[in-house]
Request: fold
Amino acid sequence: MRIVADENIPLAEAFFADHGELVRLPGREMSREQVRDADILLVRSVTRVNAELLEGSRVKFVGTATIGRDHVDETWLSQQGIGFASAPGCNADSVGDYVISALLLFGEQDGMALTDRVVGVVGAGNVGGRLVERLRALGIRCLVCDPPRAEQEGSEGFTSLEALIEKADVVSVHTPLIREGDHPTHHLLTEAHIEALRTDQILISAGRGDCVDEQALKARLERDPDLRVVLDVWENEPDIDEALYRLAAIATPHIAGYSLDGKLRGTEMLYQAMSRHFGLPVRKQLGQLKPENWLRRMAISRRAPPQEALLLCTRTCYDVRRDTLLFERYRRQYGMAKGFDLMRREYPVRREFSTLRVELKHSAGAVREVLESAGFAIRSPRK
Ligand SMILES: NC(=O)c1ccc[n+]([C@@H]2O[C@H](COP(=O)([O-])OP(=O)(O)OC[C@H]3O[C@@H](n4cnc5c(N)ncnc54)[C@H](O)[C@@H]3O)[C@@H](O)[C@H]2O)c1
Ligand SMILES: O=C(O)[C@H](O)[C@H](O)COP(=O)(O)O
Reply:
């Protein structure tokens, strides 16, 4: 079999090369000619998978190593009898790490504890749902807006978008991009929602750029630059709006989910789905293929207050400021669109919180509880 894979899918050789010749390509420019002779196509979110790309090809299975699927015309694939799989939840916790890192940064800037702010999460699936679990475990009050879930599970515990914007201090958007149906999310955050935000609120957008009306957001920020927004996803990536970029408190090039762990999980999920599709045995597991030195450790030797310990461990693992600064460097050196994609291609290895083993030298119950709630693995003398 011939397998064409995006160059940004780690361990694709280790998982797939036994099944045929593997060709690596840059995803954004993948062309009809390049995939025509492929049997298996493995992509990321930057490749539009539709009739235009695949008509007349011999592709029998498409996998996207991502959670999002809005770049894939699933209806057309199914009409053609082409198998399809995505990687639900693969990098969900990495997005949670990103949000926690941003919340800690704002807490530090404002001299506030994490628990001083109410966080509103819009879209509570794998990403938003797990984020809410972690934040609640940290003692943070959360509001949740997810109408499809509210319809299925009953309205208790869910709130409308309008009420969430009114009551929350942080509005964190994690919806997929859905253009049709009962709950479309294209410009889910309308001009009216954006105008309703208070200057002291914080908006985080880490689902898909098109879920927020960017022109309205830009107009609001031009009038009210003190409103803080964290933008990881954008309309028209990679050629994003430079004026909006400059107005954002934190601006990153769609890397909230870019941990090595999340990406590798995505590769393994596609391997499993591909094996099922072709009736092949699942012989490989991520555990056998992971690089050495998989787990890292750190120790907290003194009696740090819980919030300080959380900040220390979070920054050891992931600091959202690093990515904001790095993005600015790439933009200056290469221009916006090229810099956006280049930073993603050369993204430094980042690990999920759960891979950091934190050794507590003192049996500090409160520190242990906070770090575990945030997702770190703890070793400490128990009382
Ligand atoms: N920035 C990143 O790096 C990054 C990483 C991973 C995922 N994502 C994006 O985040 C999206 C969500 O990921 P997920 O794993 O949670 O997906 P998911 O499918 O598990 O959950 C999506 C949730 O959104 C809810 N939803 C749908 N329409 C809604 C609406 N109109 N209003 C409010 N909620 C609505 C659904 O009911 C569901 O609970 C992905 O589709 C992807 O686009 C971004
Ligand atoms: O949907 C996802 O999983 C994320 O948005 C993913 O991290 C995007 O990464 P990309 O496919 O654009 O490399």
User: Anything to note?
Assistant: The chain has three domains: 2-86+259-288, 91-251, 297-379. The mean pLDDT is 95. The chain is about 40% helix and 15% strand. The longest strand covers residues 2-6.
